[in-house]
Amino acid sequence: MTGSNRKLSLLLVLAVLGAPAVYAQDIAGDFKQAVDLLQRDHKPEALEMLRKVVAANPSQEQALELWKSTDGQVWLDMLTEQGEFEQLTKRLMSLVGAARRAHKNDPEAIKTLVGKLDSDDVVERRGAVRELSANHGEYAVPAMLPALADSGNDDRRIKMIQSLKEMNTDVVVPLIEALDSDDAFLRRNIAMTLGGIGDARAAGALDRMAAGDADGACQAAAKSALLAVHGSGDACRDLCALGEDYHMRRGNALAEYMYSDVVWNWEGGHLTATPTPRALYADAMSLKTFARALATDSACADAASGMARANAGQVASIEALAIAGQDTAELAPFGDRASIMVCASGGAALDAALSRSVAQGDVGTAVVLVRALGDNAAAPTEGLVAALHSRDGAVSSEAAVAVGKMATAGKCKVGPDVVRTLGEIAGREIARIAFVIDADAARASTVAGALSAAGMMVTVADSGAKGVAMLRRIPGLDVVVLADHLPDITPAQVIDEVRSDTSTTKAPILMLASDPQTAELYGATTQGVLANPSDITPVTAALTGALYVNAHSADHPAGEVRGQILPPDVEVLRTALDPEHEVPTPVGGTDDLATAKAVGYLTVNVKTGVIHANVRTLGFVATKAHVHGPADASAAAGIAGRTSGVFHELTLTADSTAADDFWTLPADTAALPADEVERLWPAADPGPGEPLAGVGPTAVCTPALASGEAAWAQASRPGARSRRRSRVGSASRTSVTGKEGPAGAPPSLGSGAARRLSHPWPPFSRVVSEVRRIPGRSRA
Fold first, then answer.
1. Residue 121 — left, alpha, or beta (φ > 0 → left; ψ -120 to 50 → alpha)?
2. Distance between CA atoms of 763 and 780, rounded to whole angstroms?
3. pTM for this one?
4. Residue 626 near residue 646 (C-beta atoms within 8 A)
5. Which regions of 532-590 does DSSP assign to beta strands (E)?
6. 758/278 Cα distance (integer angstroms)
7. What is d(CA 271, CA 514) in angstroms, rounded to the nearest whole number?
8. What is the spatial distance between Cα 379 and Cα 347, in angstroms, rounded to a whole number?
9. What whole-number distance in Å separates Cα of residue 375 and Cα of residue 359?
10. Among candidate residues 548, 553, 554, 568, the one with its CA nearest the CA of residue 741
11. Which region among 369-383, 514-528, 763-777 has the lowest average model confidence (pLDDT)?
């Protein structure tokens, strides 16, 4: 075993045996020590201790306790240190934000705490501020605004403004919305408060207020606040920049702790909160911000294209969730509205939005915009041309199809580049989408090249923030390769984003290691390590289901328990074989039928069709082994109690003896065609207890019983489950035990290279149709 493989095995074993126990430490004590070291200006030692805290993978509740027990100024001090200090602090704050969302909106608790802000007891008042900030955040703002509008109680108003300042970034979004109030006194005090907080998200709204508010005192307060938030003085410019930051999920606008479950509006003289799905929150905020820019300047082209892009982003997010097999029924109204708004955006706005999306690698949004332009544009636009030449295969493919449709409608003529791209799509054999996140351009290029050479489509992000922004816009993502050091955020934050997003939660993550020790810290949350950027063996292993974890004991040093690590599309079916299930039931012969048995495994990638099967017999010597199944969809053969023809023949891999009798599919077994995979693993499950629609019994033959001595029992499902992408083929999957192959080899996949087209590529039939319909092209 090589050193890298040994290290990978160690990481996998640690994941099973309880890596948190290995790295167990007193998180609160280490954090307190880090704070103490920082305050005594021992920054290198403080940074090292903070690294330990983050590497210990604290829970959301543990992070929340750190937040509650630590003065807000301490957190600000750590953030202002910048560099890795800032990254690690933001990582902890992201965990805090996730925990706080669970119990924020409690009106009675908020009312009680806001009442304590009036106290003359400084300790009580500061405790109330801290609890409001830690537990309720933005939801406290509506209860605090009346004091800011009360001109008759200066003392209470000042205390409330100071409290809002101490609550910091949590209260910025609802305060910005409240600037739409008709109460000039309230607007002025909100502007002062926003200036005291100094959050750049307020710049556009304050620009607008400084330039156009009817009240002179409000204008003066806004101008003063603009100095603190570094506004440009151009409201449309600052608002459009913020709108794009929201859309791209950049950390300055939408760090993990800035997400919310609601979008705030000012209606009827007070703040209202509209529940918004997390998957759509970024683009909902982007839409609101671009709309405010358009209200400021109706001729602002960037605002119009930004709204088109934000609407397309919502459609793309919903599509990505659907592709991942998630139930999107509740999101359908949002998607329908966004689709209508995309089409209503106008050609110029759509084209500008597409050009911007292509330039920024915003894949999902670009695909939606390409389709809209293809359906509505009179001729290829600048954005479509840019999309056609995009390095991303999904974008260029959709653009080629769109231009092809224009040609068939007689709107334009197509050049050889369009025809060539359409031909490439029609003949492309691609099923894997990889995402590389690494600031080291040379290393990222090497990894991307190796992945591309292996038949994968690859997207690259050169920073953690950009990676997080693009993550939700890559439909059908199969694997993430993540650098162990990033310039802006921690790898742990990226891992959390991958795991928290339902469209990517099952995608394997492999750590690209520049520092093996750092990479090992994330062993419990990743599926492997790439020590050599040109060797992508761990990636292919993770994608094919060839990785497994096991634990050893003194009695069983080769391994006592084991489980396969399966990507979403790989299914492992396990069953026991015995004479009772053979048809007809064997009788006579020289073997002891009471002890004759076998264990079998079928491993299938339901996305690519790659298939492999293993059978180990026990208590008898086999002469042949087969997988049996129906020849076509009309055949009833293969179900329990029925015989069928040979589906695949297994070959012997060792001496055929009672002690060592292992049969397997040849390594070069061809992948199953797409229609056969769909027939055997249909997209909709049968009901509980119904037989599988797939492969039927497997027979093992002996010299005494040539027709079959032990048969694979037909599996039935324990319960129906709906899914679109991850197909479960049996009641028994993963977490297998014992030895399935020679010397404990895993139930490996065959090397069949056939692949079938999958989203986000345009459907094969659609592409071929466009190729054939292009004027002057052969229809053969």
1. beta
2. 19
3. 0.59
4. yes
5. 547-551, 561-565, 570-578
6. 26
7. 49
8. 11
9. 22
10. 548
11. 763-777
